[in-house]
Amino acid sequence: MKNMKFRNDRGSALLLTFFVGLVVSILAFVLYTLSMKEMALAERQRKRVTALHIAEAGIERAIFDLRQDFISSYSWTDGDINGQVFVLNNNFQVMPYADTTLNNGTYTVMLKNGDRPRDIWIKSSGVFESMTQTIQVYASIQRYSIWDNAIFAGSGQNGGVIKGNVNVAGSVHVLGDALTSTDFAIDLNGTATLAANNYSALDTALRNRLPPLENIVFDGDNVETLRSHLRVKNGQVNLGGTGQIGETNVAGNAFKETADAAFVEDGIVETSGPTNVHVDRRGLYDLGNMFSFPLLGSDEDPDSYASFFKSQAYQVIDAAELAQLAAITPESVFAIGDENGMIAMDGEGHLLVSGCLYIEGDLKLKTNPAGIKTITYQGTASILAEDGIVINSGLVTPDTTDSFPTSNILGFMTPQKIVLGEKAQKDVMGLFYAEDDIKVSKQTNIIGTLVSNYFDLSQQVPSVFQVPATVDHLPPHMIGSDPFYLFRIVSWQRI
What we know:
The chain folds into 3 domains: 47-144 and 487-494, GSPII I/J protein-like (Pantoate--beta-alanine Ligase, Chain: A,domain 2, 2-Layer Sandwich), CATH 3.30.1300.30; 146-293, no CATH class; 296-447, no CATH class. By secondary structure, the chain is of the alpha/beta class. Helices cover 17% and strands 38% of the residues. The chain has helices spanning 10-73, 204-207, 305-312, 319-325; strands at 80-81, 84-85, 93-94, 101-102, 105-113, 119-128, 131-144, 151-153, 162-164, 167-169, 172-174, 184-188, 193-196, 214-218, 221-225, 229-232, 236-239, 244-245, 261-264, 268-269, 282-283, 314-316, 333-338, 341-346, 350-359, 363-365, 374-378, 380-385, 389-391, 394-396, 409-414, 417-420, 427-440, 445-457, 463-465, 484-494. The protein contains 4 helices and 36 strands. The model has no long low-confidence stretch (mean pLDDT 90). β24 (341-346) and β25 form a beta hairpin. The chain has a 26-stranded mixed β-sheet that branches. Strands 3, 4, 5, 6, 7 and 36 form a 6-stranded antiparallel β-sheet that branches.
C-alpha cells in the first residue's frame, strides 16, 4: 500500500473547463458577429427594397400623368405633362413635382423622348435613408380605335368576314364574333395583299392630298410606315393564290414593306406558302375583350346611337330633298340643310358639306359618262342614310397639299349596305360604316377606312389605303369615335 501512487487531476479539469469556456465564448462571439452581420444585411436589404418600392411609385406616378396628359392633348411635347410644366426633349430632365416624399423617403422622376412619337423613357430614383435605387423603363402609349385601321370588321356572315382579291395598305382588325375556330375570317385569293405598310401603290396625285407618313429607322434604313397590324380575334386567315400579309423587305427602300405584327388567335393557313407572311412579329390576338362592334340601332329607340345622331343632325324628310339625294350627279344643283348640317352641289362637280345630316331614305352618288365623273368635296360632315349608300362617282377632296383629312373629311353611316365603285374604277376618299355589309368593286381606290360586319371585295382588285391622321380629324358624331388608350411597358431595368 505504501508504494501506491495517486494522480492529482484537479489541474487538468480546470484546464479543460477553461478551454471549453473559451470555445463556447468564441462560438458565441462568432454567432453574435454573424447575427449582427445578418441583421445589418437584413436592414440593408430592407432599405434597398423600400428604396426600390419608392422608385416604383415614382414610375407609377409618371405613367399616370403621361396617360392622362395624352388622353387630353394627344401629345407630350406641348410643354405640359398633366399640369406639370415640362418641355420634353432627347435628354433626361427632372419632372418638377412639388412633393416627392413617400414612406419617409423621396423619389426623383426624369423623362426623355423615346424613339417614336408615342414612346418615352422614364427614370425614377428612390432614396430611403442611405440607400438609393433607380429604375428605368421604356414605355409606349397606343391608341386603339375602329377608325385606326384600313378595315375594321365585326361578326361576319356566311362563315367569314372578308373574302376576295383586295390590296389593303394599313391595319386590319377583325372580331369575327360569329365565327368558329375553323371558319375563315379572312379568305384571300388572287394577288391580294393584306396589311401592306406603305403608300407605294397609291397614285402620287392622291397621296399629295394626305399628311406625310411617320418615319422610323428599320433594318438600318430611314423609312416611312403605316405601322400596319393584322388582328383577328376569331377565325383563321387563309392565304390562297399568291395572297400575302405584308410584303418582302427590300433593303435601301424609302418605305417599310413588312407588316409590324400579325395577332391571329386561330392561326394563318398558308396555302400560298409560308414565304408569303412578311411580318415582324406573330402571336395570338392581344386585345382581349377591349373591342365590340358598334351598332347604330333604330332611331325609334331613344337610347340608340341612331336616335342620338338624329337629334344632332339636319333631318332630311322632305320628299323633294330625298329625291335629290337619291340621285346626285356631278351636274346636280341644290342646297339642303340648316345650321345643324348642310349639303350643296353647284352643277360643276363641287360638293360643299358641314355638320350632320340624317337622311330618312338612301344616298346615291352617280356619274354621267358624258359629263363630269368625279365629285370634289370641301368641308367636314357626317351623313347617316337609313336605306343604304351607293357611290359610283369619284369622290375626292381638292387637289391641294394635306386637304384630307385635316381640312376636308366626309363620314358615311348606314344600318344597311354600302356599295362603292360598282360601275367603274373610282377614287373615293372618306370614312364608311355599314352595319350590314360593304361591297367594293372594280379597281376602286378607297382612301380612308371601311367599317362593317361583312365585306365583299371579290370583284377585280379594289384597294384600301388607311390614312392614320383621320382618327385625329373625325367628322362630328361619327359612330365609334371614342378611342381606347393602352399604356405598355416595353422594357424595365434596375440600374
